[in-house]
Design a protein that fits this description.
Elements (H helix, E strand, L loop, with lengths): L9 H32 L2 H22 L15 H4 L3 H64 L12 H14 L6 H11 L12 H4 L12 H7 L11 H16 L10
Length: 266
């Protein structure tokens, strides 16, 4: 192989090549850093693509700067004329080609990152719209249930006739709520015997009357007994039919088990 000679002009070309190689390597490193930053912002599938482009760019640089894909000789004396016989224009063309590949890769990566960001934004907007629609649906359902409840008519209070039958039935409902036993027939039977159904009846001749505490009302209850066995929620007036019946039945339940068990004066 011919040795380098002073007049051959190979050393300046090799020096130029070395200088351009270092410049390109520096740009490649800087561009690689940009690609790496962009790659980290992309979804995983795009990261692999950008990494591949960067690798191809580096390989292109390595095989393009040295003719034949070989490495740079360790000494200039052993470089053959065919290994260094290229002009500055050729080196610039190689440099420009590599830079173009890297710039194209960077442009593609940037576009991919932008698209990924737009897709993520659209996905977030779609999820927000879905959540809003679900909230509106639930709100409509709640409003519909409220409207249905509002349409339900309140149950009218139970009414009772203002006579012996009505008084007994109302008293039985109060007794049921308070756990006081007794039946319609048992109550009516004792009322007819004690007062003949007169809510204002009063006994002024028996022992209670002699003692100053006459029996009063439908079931002829003395005041102390009425006060002791009065059921909350009923009138405090001993002559009130419902209050009188309920208090008397409460007393009879405590003493006899039920008004049904009373068959005479009690």
């Amino acid at each position: 192989m011919p040795k380098y000679t002073a007049g051959s002009g190979h050393r300046p070309a090799l020096a130029k090549l070395t200088e351009l190689t270092e410049q390109t390597r520096t740009k490649l490193t800087h561009t690689g850093q940009k690609l790496n930053t962009t790659r980290q912002k992309l979804p995983k599938k795009h990261q692999l693509g950008v990494a591949g482009v960067a690798g191809l760019g580096a390989a292109a640089l390595a095989f393009s700067l040295v003719p034949g894909g070989g490495s740079q000789p360790s000494t200039t004396e052993s470089v053959s004329a065919s290994s260094v016989a290229f002009s500055s224009e050729q080196v610039e063309d190689v440099k420009g080609g590599v830079e173009k590949q890297l710039n194209d890769a960077l442009t593609q990566a940037t576009s991919a990152a932008k698209k990924a960001a737009e897709d993520a934004k659209k996905k977030t907007a779609a999820e927000a719209a879905k959540q809003k629609a679900e909230q509106e649906r639930k709100a409509k359902e709640a409003a519909s249930r409220s409207a249905q409840r509002a349409q339900v008519k309140p149950v009218a209070a139970k009414s009772y006739a203002n006579n012996l039958d009505g008084w007994i039935r109302e008293s039985l409902d109060v007794m049921k709520k308070n756990g006081i036993p007794g039946s319609y027939d048992g109550i009516k039977r004792n009322i007819l015997r004690e007062s003949s159904g007169n809510p204002n009846a009063i006994n002024n001749w028996d022992i209670n009357a002699i003692n100053g505490i006459p029996s009063k009302g439908l079931l002829q209850v003395i005041p102390p007994t009425f006060q002791t066995y009065h059921v909350p929620g009923t009138s405090s007036n001993i002559y009130d039919p419902v209050a009188n019946i309920t208090a008397a039945c409460n007393y009879a339940a405590d003493r006899y088990g039920s008004m049904d068990n009373v068959n005479s004066a009690y």
